[in-house]
Amino acid sequence: MPTVDDIREALRGVMDPEIPTISLVDLGVITNISISPDNVAHISMTPTFTGCPAIDYMRDDVRRRVGEMGFADVDVQIDFDVQWNSNRVTEEGRKRLLQHGLAPPAPYEGVLELEVLNNTPCPFCGSHSTVLQSPFGPTLCRSIHYCNSCRQSFEGFKPI
Amino acid sequence: MNDTAALRDLLLRMADDELIIAHRNSEWTGLGPIMEEDIAFSSIAQDKLGHSLGLYRILESLGGAEPDAVAFGRSEGEFRCCQLVEYPIGGYDFSLMRHFLHDTAELLRYEMLERSSFEPLARLATKIKGEIKYHLFHANTWIAQLGARGSEESHARMQSALNEVFPLALGIFEPSDYETELAAEGIFPGEAALRGKWLETIAVTLEKGTLILPSLDAVTPAYGGRKGYHTEHLKPLLDEMTEVFRIDPSAEW
Asked: Where are the alpha helices (DSSP H) in A68-121?
């Protein structure tokens, strides 16, 4: 019988629909996995941003992938019992964001100060000489920056 | 039972504010003065729509109808949004000032609700607060920028927008019939407490923008929205927003 760890491992192969280099596990949106005695897999997920339109696609992808593992049923819940914050992105996840050309969210302790958005390291050349152009980008979770060193715009995954 | 009525009223006010301001903000899509601003108002709209959905879902869990039916199936008089959010977008000065005054109140409200005894709301408040911080970061930057570091014209326009929006914004805090119950149950400390904090908080940013708040004695708060009395602007907004939904309310999207 597949275990909870097997499910987690399988979900490492389910990618964010908007950032296809990062898995849902590394993004930190999978908040709980359990298997009940009746052989039903229960997975809890939480969206990055409350209004994230990708969450329904993610839920369907999770249901489909875990559905291939031989459980009697798969139950996927979306809730806010455990809330997503950008510190939930794993080390591996940060590397994967960089691979996609996105600056990973700055880790923080305690209360987030949005000043951290200034001088976000450039994902292309690594320079810290960058400016925040807008805290809003093409998706809810992205901000837009400009690198003074390699002289181009780049996007960042917002710390939250 | 009274507590549930009190809770429903609070949730409906908040959810309707979020839904209607989201729709208004989305009207800047394609029209923003520069591309970053176009994207900012569009993103903020999408966030707020998500917030309204979260609140309508809690209402559903208390025995209400499903979120789409509540958002798109009600008539004007059943909405509990404040009149502030109904007004057309006007010029960018009006929209920025509304964004600033409204979102400051919102952030403070969710900060209070994080400690609410009603846990589903407390959890959602924590989640939403992190997102509104970005909205306010945007609003505060422009208030300071256009107020103090822009031109004489930008300062004059922001001051004039403040004079116009302030009485409307006071309508956010129209007392409900349930203030005592909500406070006694530890659900929400109340509109008066929120208004007090709001006045202190907006004063700090307005000073950075060298803008002067009209005297409270000289203005009449735009009340009525929380009781279902709306401006002439809400109905056309609802007609447009619900046009597609009404063609086939049972359609799967």
From this structure: 91-99
Q: What is the DSSP letter of A15?
A: B
Q: CA torsion sign, A12 to A14 to A16 to A18?
A: positive
Chain A hits for B126, Cβ within 8 Å: 83
Query: Using CB atoms and an 8 Å cut-off, which of residues 122-181 of chain B contact chain A?
Result: 123-124, 126-128, 130-131, 133-134, 137-138
Question: Is residue A90 in a domain?
Answer: no
The pLDDT of residue B2: 55
**Looking at domain B2-247, which CATH architecture does it have?**
Up-down Bundle (1.20)
Question: A131: domain range?
Answer: 102-157
Residue B1 pLDDT grade (very low, low, confident, very high; cuts 50, 70, 90): very low
> In sequence order, which residues have a C-beta less than 8 Å from that of residue A49 and are 6 or more positions away?
A140, A141, A160, B47, B50, B131
Q: Do A83 and B133 touch (CB under 8 A)?
A: no
Summarised one tens digit per residue, pLDDT across range B97-133 is: 999 999 999 999 999 999 999 999 999 999 999 999 9
Residue A91 lies in a domain: no
Give the tens place of pLDDT for each residue, A70-81. 999 999 999 888
The number of distinct structural domains making up chain A is: 2
Determine, for residues A51 and B123 on separate chains, whether the beta-carbon distance falls below 8 Å.
no
Cross-chain Cβ contact B131/A81 below 8 Å: no
Whether residues B44 and A85 touch (CB distance < 8 A) is answered with no
- Predicted complex ipTM: 0.86
Q: What is the pLDDT of residues B138-195, one digit of tens each?
A: 999 999 999 999 999 999 999 999 999 999 999 999 999 999 999 999 999 999 999 9
Give phi and psi for A136, each to the nearest 5.
-120, 140
Q: Indicate whether A120 pLDDT > 50.
A: yes
Query: Quick one: pLDDT band at residue A20, thresholds 50, 70, 90?
Result: very high
Distance set, CA B78 to CA A106, A116, B2, B92 (Å): 44, 43, 19, 29
Question: Which residues of B fall within a CB distance of 8 Å from A135?
Answer: 40, 134, 137-138
How far are the Cα atoms of A45, B17, B73, B252 from residue B245, in angstroms, in the given order?
29, 20, 8, 10
The CATH code of the domain that includes A23 is 3.30.300.130
Is A54 part of the contact surface with chain B (CB cutoff 8 Å)?
no
Domain membership flag for residue A97: no
Q: Does A153 contact B at CB distance below 8 Å? A: no
A89 in any annotated domain: no
Boundary (domain end) residue, out of A52, A84, A116: A84
Q: Is A12 in the same domain as A49?
A: yes
